[in-house]
Amino acid sequence: MNKSAAFADQWQRVIWQNPNLDYSQRGRPNNQLAQQQYDHNRQQQKAGAIRKLAGENGIMFVFKSDCPYCHTMAPILKNFADQYGIKVMPVSLDGGGINHFPRALPNNGIAQRLNITTVPAMYVMDTKPSNLHPLDLG
Fold this sequence. Notes:
Blueprint: H1 3-17, H2 32-56, E1 57-63, H3 68-84, E2 87-92, E3 105-106, H4 110-114, E4 121-126, E5 132-137
Parallel strand pairs: 1-2, 2-3
Antiparallel strand pairs: 1-4, 4-5
Organism: Neisseria gonorrhoeae
Protein name: Protein TraF
Pfam family, one: TraF
């Protein structure tokens, strides 16, 4: 038996006697049913955290009506907002609407203040309107 095989054999014995040293037992479980439950629990935790944030925050979605990327992003954002109860404030840079957000607010200078040069742009807004944090730009 070579040295690496002897080491692996000995390490396996150590793991059997001291399961707390087994790195594979930390974090996500190995058993398929346990993995499903673990993944379900993680998804529930994420959803709860997002819903909590939704109560305190919203998303400002800045777009142009002729932007193909904005048209791609709009249904994804709408679905996310509906699923988690997040308020979306759509802002149109060119005054036109977009599918899923047909009644957008006109650009009242916000694009210039935030130096928005590419769309779609999304910002997280907290309860104070002056606090905007970039979420996705371009």
